[in-house]
Amino acid sequence: MKGIIYILLLCTAFFIAVSCSELLPPAPEPETVLAGPIEDLTPQQLRDHLIGDAQFGRIFGQEDGLGPIFVSNACESCHIGDGKGHPLTTLIRFGKYSGGIWDPMVEQGGPQLQNRAIAGYPPETIPGDATGVTRLMPPAVTGLGFLAAVPDAVILELADPDDSDGDGISGVPNYIQPLDYFIPLPSHIPSNGKYIGRFGKKAGAIDLLQQIVTAYKEDIGITSDFDTQDNFNIQAGLTTGDFVDDPEVSAAIVNNVVFYVRTLKVPPRRDENDIDVIAGENLFNQINCSGCHIPSLVTGFSDVTALSEKTIHPYADMLLHDMGSELDDGYTEGTALTSEWRTAPLWGIGLAEDSQGGSPFYLHDGRASTLEAAIGFHGGEASNSRDEFHNLSANEKEQLIIFLKSL
Ligand SMILES: [Ca+2]
Ligand SMILES: [Ca+2]
Ligand SMILES: [Ca+2]
Ligand SMILES: [Ca+2]
């Protein structure tokens, strides 16, 4: 009797398994799955990656030190599946010009707005006298270890501040004042004590450590050994607010998350031998999209062998470009102008909508819902390329878009 019940149960389980898998949407093809470690990590490196992965997904509560003011409660709640985020998870930053000098309005809670707070605590609001307000979409965090390993010399080689080759493009690095915990790499080339920024939409962070320490503090309200000072709502005159001793996370945890992000693989290409993809790629180069979205770069030495001296295809130059008045939010960081943005890396752009809830949102604030629209917003140094795109035949435009979707 027992045996029959067991077989019955087994059959039911089998039946449910089969019918369930018919109802569920098909699992994504392995090559379209964004998240995952780079190849060729050592077993120890893979273990460290997985420890960082868990911390990246950790949801902070009030008892862990969340806030008192914050934007969201986990890295992963904005960087969903390590891919591009959604307009619902933008960061808002503000500041103003006074007497021709940029003022990040630190005395009024700037530059970043923390629009949420723990129970009973007031969140921040945008001060009325801010002249520039920007909304930044969470970028994908894949392939960043490779970008971190590109030597400053390579970036400087691509810069053309006076447009000496006359192509209308004059990329410049953003120079950033390092924070006290910054440790320069041998490949860093400082200028007057400042270092080249390469992470963030305005290239406002020199390295992944700075980006991630700042994310813990400004986005989640979590202090660390690197920055032990919590943010309070100084707009409301408050200088206290959470009940958890600082630092709320250790240097080891921050370093694990840095290592996790450093060792996320590059988004894999799809259909790269397709005839339209190849035609689109040629057009991309022909109309000089590649003047900023540089197809190939070579990394320098890295202490992670898998990142060291590798040819990568980020379609980016880590430089700032004046993108014209339409993309100018009147907000800035470092030595960038308000109209200047760091070239958005295009690797993984074809996978954007997978992590954005099914419909894509492009550009720094997600204002473009198609790739054509994203190109249409390009102005300033990118005006020539944009005009040449508009002058392509319908078929050529489509090929260029098909190429972008293969990235
Ligand atoms: Ca806190
Ligand atoms: Ca603030
Ligand atoms: Ca040039
Ligand atoms: Ca605290």
What does this structure look like?
The structure is a single chain. This protein has 407 residues and is of the alpha+beta class. The protein has 2 domains: 31 residues; 328 residues, no CATH class. Helices cover 29% and strands 9% of the residues. It is built from 11 helices and 11 strands. It has a 3-stranded antiparallel beta sheet with strand order 3-2-5, with no helix packed on it. It has a two-stranded antiparallel sheet with strand order 1-4. A two-stranded antiparallel ribbon has the order 6-7. A hairpin with a 2-residue loop joins strand 2 and strand 3. Helix 6 crosses helix 7 and helix 8 crosses helix 11. It is globular and about 60 Å long. One calcium ion (CA) binds next to loops. The site of one calcium ion has 6 residues, from loops.
List keywords for this structure.
two-stranded antiparallel ribbon, 9% strand, 3-stranded antiparallel sheet, alpha+beta, single chain, disordered N terminus, 407 residues, binds calcium ion, 11 helices, globular
Helix proportion range? 25-40%
Low-confidence stretches: 1-28
Number of domains: 2
Order of helices and strands: HHEHEEEEHHEEHHHEEEEHHH
Task: Please sum up the structure shown.
With 407 residues, the protein is of the alpha+beta class. Helices cover 29% and strands 9% of the residues.
